[in-house]
Amino acid sequence: MDALKAINTRRSIRKYKQKKISIQTVKKLIGAARNAPSSFNEQSWVFITVTNKETKEKLAEHKSQKSKFMKDAPLIIACCYDTTKTRTKAHNLENVAVASENILVAANALGLGACYVGGFDPEYPEIEDSINIALKLPSNIKIVCLITIGYPDEKPAKKSMRPISEVWKMEKY
Ligand SMILES: Cc1cc2nc3c(=O)[nH]c(=O)nc-3n(C[C@H](O)[C@H](O)[C@H](O)COP(=O)(O)O)c2cc1C
Predict the structure, then answer these.
(1) 59 alpha carbon to ligand 1 midpoint, in Å?
(2) Residue 10 has pLDDT above 60, yes or no
(3) Which residues does a 6 A CB cutoff place in the pocket of ligand 1?
(4) Residue 21's domain spans which residues?
(5) Total domains, the chain
(6) Which residue, of 7, 23, 107, 124, is most buried by count of CB atoms within 10 Å of its CB?
(7) Residue whose CB lies within 8 A of the most ligand 1 atoms, among 63, 115, 159, for a mutation test
(8) Whose CA is nearest to atom 23 of ligand 1?
(9) Which of 8, 12, 76 has most ligand 1 atoms within 8 Å of its beta carbon, as the pocket-test mutant?
(10) What pLDDT is attached to residue 64?
């Protein structure tokens, strides 16, 4: 699949076949992540791949409303940054966010479905605390998002998109 097709056909997939993802495929996903750009090329990210059922259940508990699907994903990648690898705090989230998009696009190119689960709101520190405990994160490793991955078992409905004229301005606003 070419890059534009992989980007433009990517959708959030939340229902997966219970088919194992090979370690070679997981390695390709991490390879795509670590080839992302980063500020000062500091590559301040750390990716934790989780397949253990109990750990996935603990991660799924972190958001009671809509994220229960996470526990049934064959793979979850916890995308984190390492505070000891960054020169400034300013780019911590950005570095991990761009690497995470690489994972989402690479997953689609490999015939997998994925969903970005974020929202570690500092106003709700208990959510982050439970992730830290489940993944045994040391204090210098901070969670940004969880990406659920598996072979797709759903076809999402067409999504509404804001008109291009609203999001693309030429030369000035
Ligand atoms: C920052 C961010 C946070 C997200 N958090 C969640 C989440 O907590 N749970 C979830 O099911 N999807 C989450 N998503 C996925 C969005 O719901 C999804 O990308 C959006 O509805 C557009 O659909 P699409 O990905 O199929 O294009 C998140 C996506 C982003 C970028």
Answers:
(1) 16
(2) yes
(3) 11-12, 14, 66-67, 115-119, 156, 159
(4) 3-167
(5) 1
(6) 107
(7) 115
(8) 12
(9) 12
(10) 54
The mean of the pLDDT values for the chain is: 93
CATH number for the domain that contains residue 88: 3.40.109.10
Whole-number pLDDT of residue 42: 96
Query: Distances from the Cα of 21 to the Cαs of 18, 27, 143, in angstroms?
Result: 9, 10, 23
Count other C-beta atoms under 10 Å from residue 116's C-beta. 17
Q: How confident is the model at residue 65 (pLDDT cuts 50, 70, 90)?
A: low
Instruction: Tell me, yes or no, whether 100 lies in a domain.
Output: yes
Q: In this structure, what is the dihedral angle of CA atoms 167, 152, 18, 128, given to the nearest 10 degrees?
A: 0
The sign of the CA dihedral 50, 56, 60, 66 is positive
Q: What is the pLDDT at residue 128?
A: 81
Q: Nearest C-alpha to atom 15 of ligand 1 is from which residue?
A: 116
- Per-residue burial over 139-154, b if 16 or more Cβ lie within 10 Å, else e, is eebbbbbbbbbbbbee
Position 120, amino acid: F
Confidence of residue 51 (pLDDT cuts 50, 70, 90): very high
Check residue 66 and give its pLDDT: 60
